[in-house]
Design brief:
Largest sheet: 7 strands, mixed
Helix content: under 10%
Order of helices and strands: EEEEEEEEEEE
Number of helices: 0
Distance between the termini: 40 Å
Radius of gyration: 13 Å
Shape: globular
Strand content: over 45%
Length: 124
């Protein structure tokens, strides 16, 4: 059974950093691409960052490029999202998701498996 467990969210001030973790189980990491998505209150879910399983190529949406870094530790079956220079507009519930593909996609509908989400609140 494929399971994803996101953690690491919290309440931080603007400019601070957080590292989200996505612990995966039940599948072979090399055959699944991973994506981080977020959903703010009253808004649609949006993609944030994605990583190919084959070669580890990362992808970022423009709003987080240069501030967020996605990485994979296969020995721990964990995908991380390092977030720096956080802004109030980054406030959302963050989800990790997996798709059985070596290539990541920005389309949420392509991801078959989802974690439960972790709340990130950026406020002074």
């Amino acid at each position: 059974e494929v399971q994803l467990q996101a953690s690491g969210g919290g309440l931080v001030q603007p400019g601070a950093s957080l590292r989200l973790s996505c612990l995966a189980s039940g599948f072979i990491f090399d055959k699944y691409a991973i994506g981080w998505f977020r959903q703010a209150p009253g808004k649609e879910r949006e993609g944030v960052s994605f990583i190919d399983s084959a070669d580890g190529n990362p992808d970022y949406v423009d709003s987080v490029k240069g501030r967020f870094t996605i990485s994979v530790d296969k020995s721990k079956n964990t995908v991380y999202l390092r977030m720096t220079s956080l802004k109030p507009e980054d406030t959302a519930v963050y989800y990790c998701a997996a798709t059985k593909s070596t290539l990541a996609t920005r389309h949420a509908s392509w991801y078959e498996f989802w974690g439960q989400g972790t709340q990130v609140t950026v406020s002074s």
